[in-house]
């Protein structure tokens, strides 16, 4: 029974492939940055600028020394600084490691829902399908965990006398966990309904996305969500310790939508990834919550008072 509730890997794989397809798409490579291709910058933070509401979001970086920008990424910063009417540091100031702020324009989460969610052009619409599917993949486990917790609470509410527990082995943590697992497995109606709804929405999304592939080139630019709390490479082609920066651990996670290039083969890869299809897989992916054992122990102690 214990093995039946151990965590599996489908959801982790989906997250990794989503990030590879839409978030940090540059592959890892070991290299020494050369001056003709990279610029060393004392990068300390990043400011996201919303094109619609003009609101800004600042992300502080964990500072460990200079970060290497690819020439293309660095030149784009010059253009953005000019558009924002900001003074771009001189070459001497950059070389002297004056603090540098990285600026990005796009849409905040609130404005993205207004400006991007209803897009009909295939370049944006197919990404919207992928992003919505990504959220469904994540929310499936959150909701499943809630359903499993409710099954445990329902079972506990039916135990009103400690004599009802004498038939069970309560001597070890493992025994308590097995008991709770069997309780959940005996009440899976809500989980089955949840999974059916997820699979129905999944099939609808996949069909709608697949219908758009014929209209798309091998690569195209569109607005995609960039999580503010994840690492980023300052090179679009490769990433390495020289080019990568990490937000401070206190960074509030939110999705800011930026204009970037994505590839058809990676979009298709994400859509075609194996997803949870059976109740057994859903249970394995959701895993076991230690607090359920605490609920049982607390309930037993309360009955003995």
Can you walk me through this structure?
By secondary structure, this protein is an alpha+beta fold. It has 2 domains: 3-9 and 122-206 and 274-304, no CATH class; 25-120 and 226-261, no CATH class. It has helices at residues 10-23, 71-83, 91-95, 109-115, 122-157, 173-185, 189-210, 264-271, 279-286, 290-304, and strands at residues 38-50, 56-60, 67-70, 99-107, 219-227, 232-233, 244-245, 255-263. The strands form 2 sheets. Strands 1, 2, 3, 4, 5 and 8 form a 6-stranded mixed beta sheet that branches. Strands 6-7 form a two-stranded antiparallel ribbon. A hairpin with a 5-residue loop joins strand 1 and strand 2 (56-60). Helix 5 packs parallel to helix 10 (290-304). The longest helix has 36 residues, at 122-157. The relative contact order is 0.22.
Number of strands: 8
Average pLDDT, rounded to a whole number, is 91
**Content-based structural category:** alpha+beta
Order of helices and strands: HEEEHHEHHHHEEEEHHH
Contiguous runs where pLDDT drops below 50 for at least 5 residues: 1-7
Q: Radius of gyration from the CA trace?
A: 25 Å
Oligomer: single chain
Number of domains: 2
**Percent strand:** 15-25%
Could you write a compact summary of the structure shown?
This protein has 305 residues and is an alpha+beta fold. It has helices at residues 10-23, 71-83, 91-95, 109-115, 122-157, 173-185, 189-210, 264-271, 279-286, 290-304, and strands at 38-50, 56-60, 67-70, 99-107, 219-227, 232-233, 244-245, 255-263.
Task: Describe this protein with a few key phrases.
single chain, 305 residues, alpha+beta, 2 domains, six-stranded mixed β-sheet, 10 helices, disordered N terminus
